[in-house]
Design brief:
Helices cover 77% and strands 10% of the residues. It has 2 helices and 2 strands. A two-stranded antiparallel ribbon has the order 1-2. It starts with a helix and ends with a helix. One of its GO terms (molecular function) is protein-folding chaperone binding.
Amino acid sequence: MYESKFHVVNDLSGRLKYDTGLGESKFVLQELDLLKEDSIVYKLFGPILVRQDPAEPNANVRKRVGYLTAERSALMQLSGTWERSKLSKESSELVLDKRQ
């Protein structure tokens, strides 16, 4: 019982983490798409703002969206595998109970 609750909580917190990061990254992409070609972009390094080429943050955020999407898909597959193994275990326990 404890193990199943742990997996459910862990699974939900993992999904929430990736969904939140994905939503934030997509919002940043929308903001970056609004920039004009001659816009100036700065990156915060500690207390210092450093000027950046606008294409660099755009590429970084797109890479992050790809990473988060892949990690979320992997988590969903793992969750599905865990659910199938849980159902298999429960059905085998029911069969054993019927035999006894």
